Amino acid sequence: MQNRPVFPVRYYIIDFEFSIRFPEDSDPKQRLVTGLPILRNGFDHPDDYGREIAPEMLLDKPHCPFKSDIFQLGKLFFDYFHLLESDYPDLIKIFRSMIEHDPSCRPTAAEALKSVHEYHDGFTRAQLKGPVPEPDLSPMPFSQMVKRTHEANARQAAREQKHLEAELAKASVTSS
User: Fold this and answer.
1) Which parts of the sequence are annotated with region: Disordered (predicted)?
2) pTM of the entire structure?
3) Residues 42 and 72 in one domain
């Protein structure tokens, strides 16, 4: 087991995908989106998204993108740390609340963070400096990642072929 660094570790979790900006003065209840961001950008299959999809993102109904973000973050944490459930059941319970099927049952980011802080505050300094069991850091087997990548590439090639055929058909109609 390795020793932890002297200085506290700080993690920053950010989202580099397709973002939407809502006016600051907009009503939070009106900050809604529909569907999956990747489908608005030329892709045609949810598997091309490359990450877990919140259930509401697959519906053709407006939903709160922030609750979808909570689902994805909770899924990431749960996938990485679920094997620690016997050692840290209350922490895993927070992650489970973040991946509730019903978005209205998920905490907000502030609520989830508050729960993690409260959980953290329940430990002594000595406990926090103690060893942590090694988590399973491979939530998706490599073979499955390769398979999904291959399938996404095949769908992309099919899209490009369809686009090329449409362009050729358009060109032949124009030249006739």
Assistant:
1) 147-176
2) 0.66
3) yes
